[in-house]
Design brief:
This protein is of the alpha+beta class. The protein has one domain: 2-Layer Sandwich (GMP Synthetase, Chain A, domain 3).
Amino acid sequence: MPRGDDRADIIRARLERDLDAAHVQIEDDSALHAGHLGAQGGGGHYRVLVVSPRFDGLSRVAAQRLVYQALGELMTTEIHALEMRTLTPDQWTAAND
């Protein structure tokens, strides 16, 4: 099983590749959940921000489904909990102006 840093790299690579993500920010909160039942199995707790043109015209739920699809089996093997924020490039620009 990959270490936390390696997991974050794998998550980033998947999101960039499968969603054409312009920006991916990952925060590993796994240490905050030490002793938590899910953490005992080795799965990490992550917060991600994904900016992708693939989210354009999609509902928040549909955009999140694309993230889950991109992560595939990682959701059952390497990731125990995932909090996500999905934005289009236009939304990202507006949020940072």
